[in-house]
Specification:
mainly alpha, 6 helices
Length: 110
């Protein structure tokens, strides 16, 4: 039988549902990279697999809760957009040192 990670990679949402129904502990496994099945599905961009894992119930792992949209006060991941995630205030220009530049290597400025 395939592992939950193999089913995610194959995009087999029905297989994931059957596997999790038979053994709910499979949701708490970690792969070699330390990712949970929910994290792995999100990273791989497997929406149906991600949804199938969440259908099994609210995650217990704090990170899974966060990416699953169960953290209080945070929007669900489908409400996030790249524009919201990647907009940051502009950086202020770097200040120059008096006399310009950096001190020479290995000692103080003369």
């Amino acid at each position: 039988m395939a592992t939950i990670f193999e089913l995610i990679d194959q995009g087999d949402a029905d297989g994931i549902r059957a596997l999790v129904a038979a053994d709910s502990a499979t949701r708490d496994l970690r792969n070699d990279a330390g990712l949970s099945p929910l994290m792995h599905a999100a990273y791989q961009g497997r929406g149906p697999a991600f949804a199938a894992i969440l259908e099994a119930g609210e995650p217990s792992d704090p990170w899974d809760r966060l990416i699953g949209g169960y953290a209080e006060g945070l929007p669900a991941p489908d409400a996030w957009t790249s524009r919201r995630l990647h907009t940051a205030p502009p950086r202020s220009p770097r200040r120059q040192r008096p006399g310009g530049g950096r001190p020479a290597r290995g000692g103080s400025r003369r």
